[in-house]
Amino acid sequence: MNEGRTRPLRADAARNRARLLDVAAEVFTERGLGVTTEEIARAAGVGVGTLFRHFPTKEALLQAVLVRRMERLVADGTELAEREQPAEAFFAAFRLVVDRSAGKEEFARALASAGIDVHAGLGELSGAVRELLERLLTGAQRAGAVRPELGVPELIALLVGTNASMEQLGPDPAAHERIFQVVFAGLRPAPADR
Amino acid sequence: MNEGRTRPLRADAARNRARLLDVAAEVFTERGLGVTTEEIARAAGVGVGTLFRHFPTKEALLQAVLVRRMERLVADGTELAEREQPAEAFFAAFRLVVDRSAGKEEFARALASAGIDVHAGLGELSGAVRELLERLLTGAQRAGAVRPELGVPELIALLVGTNASMEQLGPDPAAHERIFQVVFAGLRPAPADR
Amino acid sequence: MNEGRTRPLRADAARNRARLLDVAAEVFTERGLGVTTEEIARAAGVGVGTLFRHFPTKEALLQAVLVRRMERLVADGTELAEREQPAEAFFAAFRLVVDRSAGKEEFARALASAGIDVHAGLGELSGAVRELLERLLTGAQRAGAVRPELGVPELIALLVGTNASMEQLGPDPAAHERIFQVVFAGLRPAPADR
Amino acid sequence: MNEGRTRPLRADAARNRARLLDVAAEVFTERGLGVTTEEIARAAGVGVGTLFRHFPTKEALLQAVLVRRMERLVADGTELAEREQPAEAFFAAFRLVVDRSAGKEEFARALASAGIDVHAGLGELSGAVRELLERLLTGAQRAGAVRPELGVPELIALLVGTNASMEQLGPDPAAHERIFQVVFAGLRPAPADR
DNA sequence: TATGAATGAGGCTTCATTCAT
DNA sequence: AATGAATGAAGCCTCATTCAT
């Protein structure tokens, strides 16, 4: 009955949850997965109890951060795929993913460390990601802009790898661009001769 | 090389040290940096006390493992550089580095986690690595086999990134080869036209 | 009974209080004193805040549960004492107490854990209990149905003990009856000879 | 090979383990199962780490305490059974069990709380206890000293119950004796008449 | 007055490092 | 020099209680 406005009680809770996600994303990224739950809570301006009320486990928090990140990536990537020509969409999306992953390389580690659980939680989402990547990749391949022998696994690997390269370089836009040039050139079909 | 008398008491100690390094390299690689010192010691067949006698800190052990790995890389890379033609040497060394790093990606994390300290310990070594890479890179560039605008930082970044790609793919030699093809193609000078 | 105007607001409050007592009695009994206040509140269909409005402390709630249980016991025991012959009243009351305590053994633990405080709260009540027990006991002793050397403390101890026996046995009516037979036989005056 | 003396290294460890068991038995008994591991360790004069080195879990420590207690009971009860006439052995053992359990009532709670795990750990031991009790009980029954309709479960229940009675009474030897008289009288076969 | 989100002290447990043997 | 038991700081998480809505 009470349409329109958000219910006052949940307002603070929602804000805290969002705040925790934002802060956790930042702090995990900048200081690694080793940050204590206490630190995250303090950075978010709440008590540990609040953190654990919203996320039953440290890992659950990490997972939530990852999910949110991916959801956004998928959303933006999908938009790209619909707006641009296949080849442009593909390369733009490649940049998008790498840029968005900037500073988050350690998150990849979460997959290894937290392993199965994280994946499980990301489950349905992973499907969406995969579908989007497949759509972008095959589109670009049909357009003759990308080597036909590559599959989604290789694409993901190259995304992860390119991101790792960027991490390694540190913040140097020009150098980043040179890496992109190398990878993009390499992605294009090999010249017929040789 | 061993200049004079061997000190009998040191024999066991040296063996233990070597054993610890071997085992630590393996166990860090396979189970991550989270392995406990106790586990490493047990795997090496010694007590924790012995581990800490040889390496004052868990991090020091990790560093020693990294140093040894790099020393070997530099030695093998140098040999390559001396034996092969510049272009061949470059690409062979690229493969060498990536293959040798296989399964060790988490070590890169040590740089982030343990940060400065590790670097410090690697200090002098880094110089040697850098020199070798520079020699290989400029050789290949002079031979026209690699884009001239790339520098050593980009090369290192691409090595790290390619390694990350391989890690992501898991053990699939054919897929690994496709990644190498992409990166190598991308490393070659851009065609004149366009 | 309700002397004048009903205060509408209190109606809900009273209902909540009663509900909480009922639910707490049940849940404490079935899942132990370890149940969280949150669970009790949820089981009662109210928020924790409400629970704490009615009972300032988890322990206070436990105490209230105990008090209510005893009030009822005293009431029923008193009725028995007035209705039956001394000996019959005594043994019937003994059964009554044990049966009513069924499944509540852990409550005895509350005495140890919460200790003094609970006793304090039960204070006045304990007097009533004691008086009733004394009345029942001396009645039965005068009737020659119970050993004359026993006092109220021993009676209470035997009640507690018999209850513990029943708890230990689990729900087996026949076995329970055998225990009662042993205890009742033991309570009767020792035969003159030997 | 090193026969005879205990190995020096283990000496302290064994002493610490024993010390922890003794102290834990005492402290669990006197202050309930709620005592913190920290307190137990402090009382034993060791660090928490040492406690956890010897007992992987707080519950494991509790179980070890229970096992030791039972082992001793079984040993002493067995000796009794072999030394005395059946009836005397039975009643002496009954006293032994109750006296030994003095102050340990809360341990019974452990069975409920820790449940399965504790039982599991006690597994083989429970068999020994049961056998001993059966031997004592049937011996006394054959000698006509105990009601024939009672089984081991009832015996255990009465032991537990009598212990609870004693707990309830507090330290009052004369009162304890009165309880024993009641229970022992009740255990004897019912008089033929009536 | 009811709600349930927030709080934070405190519990159990782990593990790098030290030290007695 | 080697061993492994001991140490204790620190991490994650729970839960009785408080407080804003």
UniProtKB/TrEMBL annotation, chains A, B, C, D:
DNA-binding region: 36-55
Protein name: TetR family transcriptional regulator
Coiled coil: none
Residue spans crossing the bilayer: none
Keyword Isomerase annotated: no
Extent of the signal sequence: none
Matches recorded under Pfam families: TetR_C_43 (PF21597), TetR_N (PF00440)
